[in-house]
Every structure is written in structure tokens, then in C-alpha cells.
């Protein structure tokens, strides 16, 4: 059972690291890069990125994997005298916040931008971009970046405690 606990905790840590990296990359590279583009390029590029990220590798190996492996780690570590448990619970709570923000804020914004249609057929690209509200999307993504990074740190500390 110790091997299973360790493997699941490592998987939680790795998938959380992937998510911290994804959100971080959007915060410091993707969105600042897109901010410097014209309206057509922004809409087309963001739509394309959003379609590409919805794939089994990302969903299972990152977004849902971080949630599932972290929750499984909590369940497997549950019991008296487990110093890794509190750190793992903290990571799960942080990631649940990220999950809710993603589902409640970022995904609806992404879907609205995709629903605007083909950028070559949109008459008012500036209006579509303005309604998307890049600043709001980025602010919430910064929260996701900080929260997943904090969750990753919690899982790393949990690994240290578990390994002792």
C-alpha cells in the first residue's frame, strides 16, 4: 500500500506541476503575446488555442488528472499520524478553487469567443474582442496560476513528509 500511496502522490504532484505550468505560461507568455496582436489575430489565435487544449492528453494528464490524483492522495493518506495529509488536503482545496474558477469564469468566456464564429466572417472583431474582456480572463488566470503553484508546493512538501 505504501507504494500505491507514493505513486499516486507523485502523480498528483506531476499533474499539478503540469497545470501550474499551463496556467503560468498563459499568464506570462500567451496572453501578453496575444495582447500585442490585432483583433483578427487575437480572436483567431485564441479560438485555435482553446480548441487545441481540449484533448485527452491535457484533460486526463493535467486538468482532471491533478484533481483526481490529488483527491486520491487525500483518500489514501487519510488516517491518524499522517503528516503528509494536511499538505495534500491544502493542495486539493487550492485546486478545487482553480477548478471552480475555470468552470465558472474562464470556460464560459472561451466558449463565448468561440461562439462568435469564424474571424473571417465577423463584422465587428473589435467588439468581439472587447466583449471577451482579456483583462478579466487574465486576472482570473493569474489567480489560477498562483493557486496551482501553491498547490504544487503543498504537494512537494507532502512528498517530503511522506518520504520521511
Automatic annotation (TrEMBL):
Pfam families with a match to the protein in the record: Anthrone_oxy
Ranges that cross the membrane: 6-26, 57-78, 84-105, 145-163
Keywords in alphabetical order: Membrane, Transmembrane, Transmembrane helix
Transmembrane among keywords: yes
UniProt name for this protein: Membrane protein
Keyword Transmembrane helix: yes
InterPro entries from the UniProt entry: Anthrone_oxy
Biological source species: Catellatospora citrea
Amino acid at each position: 500500500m505504501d507504494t500505491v500511496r507514493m505513486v499516486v502522490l507523485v502523480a498528483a504532484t506531476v499533474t499539478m506541476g503540469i497545470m501550474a505550468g499551463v496556467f503560468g505560461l498563459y499568464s506570462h507568455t500567451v496572453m501578453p503575446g496575444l495582447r500585442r496582436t490585432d483583433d483578427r489575430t487575437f480572436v483567431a489565435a485564441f479560438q485555435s488555442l482553446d480548441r487545441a487544449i481540449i484533448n485527452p492528453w491535457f484533460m486526463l494528464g493535467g486538468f482532471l488528472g491533478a484533481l483526481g490524483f490529488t483527491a486520491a492522495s487525500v483518500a489514501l493518506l487519510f488516517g491518524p499520524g499522517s503528516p503528509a495529509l494536511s499538505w495534500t488536503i491544502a493542495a486539493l482545496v487550492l485546486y478545487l478553487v482553480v477548478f471552480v474558477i475555470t468552470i465558472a469564469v474562464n470556460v464560459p468566456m472561451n466558449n463565448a469567443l468561440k461562439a462568435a464564429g469564424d474571424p473571417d466572417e465577423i463584422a465587428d472583431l473589435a467588439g468581439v474582442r472587447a466583449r471577451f474582456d482579456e483583462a478579466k480572463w487574465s486576472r482570473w488566470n493569474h489567480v489560477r496560476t498562483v493557486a496551482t503553484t501553491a498547490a504544487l508546493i503543498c504537494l512537494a512538501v507532502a512528498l517530503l513528509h511522506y518520504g520521511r
